Amino acid sequence: MSPLRDATERLLLIDDDPKLGGMIKEYLTDHGFDITVVLTGEEGLDFHKRRPFDAVILDLMLPDIEGLEVCRQIKARSNTPILMLTAKGDPLDRVIGLELGADDYVPKPFEPRELLARIRAVLRRGRLEKHEIVSRFGRLEIDRERLEARLNGERCNLTSHQFQILDMLSQAAGRVLSRDQIMNQLGGHDAEAFDRSIDVHVSRIRSEIEEDPRHPRRVITVRGVGYVFAKAQD
Questions:
Q1: Largest Cα–Cα distance in the chain?
Q2: How far apart, in whole angstroms, are the C-alpha atoms of residue 143 and residue 155?
Q3: Scanning 7, 59, 109, 177, which has the fewest C-beta atoms within 10 Å of its C-beta?
């Protein structure tokens, strides 16, 4: 699933409504993102030139530059995913925005949970474009197109959550991921229940991919911190 470039992924929100911007910033920060909020298109373009961002959330109604023009300029110099915020009555703007390269849109008003889901989706699509569809670690293959792991060519019996955890750890190979980082990336309505069963899922992953699950060489526990995927030699 999603590799973690750092502890958090960086988002740029360009919206001239400070109240809405504050609400979005608080909500997304609580879900593990580092979010910068600016109120004008000029500020947004300037920040985007000076700092790397994993995605941009762009309101189309801005006081200085049209959001569509901001979208065009960002896409002209980068492949940063853009999620547009649009008014419900503007289907033409949505079409034009998508034609200019925007990756998705959310009509206002929206539920924060929907925005979060769509952000995660555009980030996930962006990662899949950057990373190979099948990763190979000796006898272990992780196939993101089929959403399955294979050992010696045989399909491992993993649930969707377990595959996502394995994929996430493998794409961050060599870096320790905490349980909180894993949960933030998976999200969903059952986050609390999932937190309590993370060790169970990891145990199941080990039973499928490790030669000796009691002495794992791939998914290793870092006591008191989390887990790390090791590129062990088979």
A1: 61
A2: 10
A3: 109
**Dihedrals phi, psi of 165, to nearest 5 degrees:** -65, -45
Q: Residues 115-159: pLDDT tens digits? A: 999 999 888 877 666 556 788 898 999 988 788 999 998 999 999
- Report if pTM > 0.85: no
Give me the residue label for tokens 């608080």: 26
Q: 33 with 206: CB under 8 angstroms?
A: no
